[in-house]
Amino acid sequence: MPSTASLEKLVYIKINSFVGVFHVNKMPLNYDVDIYSQLDNPWDSIVRFLNITLREMGWSNGDQEEVVMDVGCGPGRLTSEFILRIFPNLKKIIALDAESNMIEKARCLHPHPKIEYDVANFEDRSLIELWNGKITKFISVHCFNRMQDQKGAFQRVYDLLPPNGEAGFVFLLHNGYYDALQYLAKDLKWCSYIPFDIEDCIPKSHAKGYTSFHYKKMLEGIGFEIRHCQQVQNVTTFLSDELYTDFLYSVCELTPYIPNDVKKDFKKDLLHYTLKQNGRNDDGTPVDRTTTLELVQTKSRGIHHQYAESSLFGFLAKTECPCSRAHGQLSLTSRVPTGLSGPHVGMVWML
Ligand SMILES: C[S@@+](CC[C@H](N)C(=O)[O-])C[C@H]1O[C@@H](n2cnc3c(N)ncnc32)[C@H](O)[C@@H]1O
Exposed (0-12), middle (13-18) or buried (19+): which is 213, by Cβ within 10 Å? Predict the structure, then answer.
């Protein structure tokens, strides 16, 4: 019989065959793991970060045996096909996800003798601290936007690393989808189905308009030295409304609470409100616009020193300036890497 405390801590809600899990200190999450893993193609910018940026930072140098932690590993494709290959001298990867269905999928689709997949909510310190000081490289892709207490989560990363250990992140700062959730929560058709405060689903960076400067200051305050900090605008064209709707629906936090008989109508409104923010191309195809942040940071030895003004800082100042358009903007268009297919046919980087 679970104790009252554990009941308070963990409430399972099972509706329409989806399972949503609420923890104290965890955002409401929903992933339809089957749809998610079918659409599981990393963006160009993620591939670039893993294959180019991290290697340029010396992550592949291989002179020390690496113990890597990947938090929010999802169905494991990124872990096994990209992250694993960065490290020629790998001892093991501890790949964690808060959702047990993601870990089951990862163990089934992407097993590897050097990858240990485990269910763990990174917001729960007690599940993580056994690795304190033992993780030489920490990585997390598209997950830290899901942390309710981001500063606490970054502090846990600091505690996991030994001096000179490094961490790399990519996570979402803004997307019109989160405005769509707020519209849906106010819409009389849908508000009665939503059993939680919609604000609990909105990343603080989106709600408060945080940019890279906010994170740089936070991380330096914890004691990290920033090696790379870059805001990237990802513009992704989906080939049809149906594909974009399926993608949104597969990750939408409200999906588990919408009864089957009104699902079609809900999907229509989800797309409508999202496109109100994200827009369409001239040819009518739907567009997803996500601002992400890329970070690479080192746990300094001893007392952390102040971030020196450098060319990187100059670059950041340019990206952050509200009138960056007036200062000029570099746009790169890139194609989906060979061997990857999927909806990400268009990508613009605004530096
Ligand atoms: C968008 S998926 C990204 C999966 C994978 N990293 C990728 O990029 O393909 C985000 C994952 O983070 C997990 N997640 C969210 N909050 C988490 C937390 N507090 N602790 C651990 N995992 C979490 C979700 O369950 C989900 O599988």
Answer: middle
For tokens 């079918």, the residue is 38
Which residue's CA lies nearest to atom 13 of ligand 1? 72
For the segment 244-258, the average pLDDT, to the nearest whole number, is 91
According to DSSP, the β-strands at 287-299 and 115-119 are unpaired
Structure tokens at 351: 């530096």
DSSP 212-231: HHHHHHHHHHHTEEEEEEEE
Local structure of 204: helix, strand or coil: helix
Which atom belonging to ligand 1 lies closest to the Cα atom of 40?
9
**Listed ranges 1-15, 102-116, 320-334; the one with the highest mean pLDDT:** 102-116
Q: What pTM does this model have?
A: 0.79
- CA–CA distance, 95 with 74 (Å, rounded to integer): 9
| pLDDT score, position 321 | 28
The runs of H, that is alpha helices, within the chain are 4-9, 33-38, 44-48, 54-56, 77-78, 84-86, 100-109, 125-128, 150-160, 176-186, 204-208, 212-222, 241-251, 263-278, 311-320, 324-327
Q: Over the chain, what is the mean pLDDT?
A: 81
Count Cα atoms within 13 angstroms, Cβ side, for 89.
Answer: 10
Task: Report the amino acid identity of residue 102.
Answer: M
Q: Are 256 and 20 in contact (CB under 8 A)?
A: yes
72 CA closest ligand 1 atom index: 12
Ligand 1 atom having least distance to the Cα of 251: 1
Q: Could you please report the per-residue DSSP string of 164-180?
A: T-EEEEEEEEEEHHHHH
How far apart, in whole angstroms, are the C-alpha atoms of residue 288 and residue 117? 30
Distance 41 CA to ligand 1 centre (A): 15
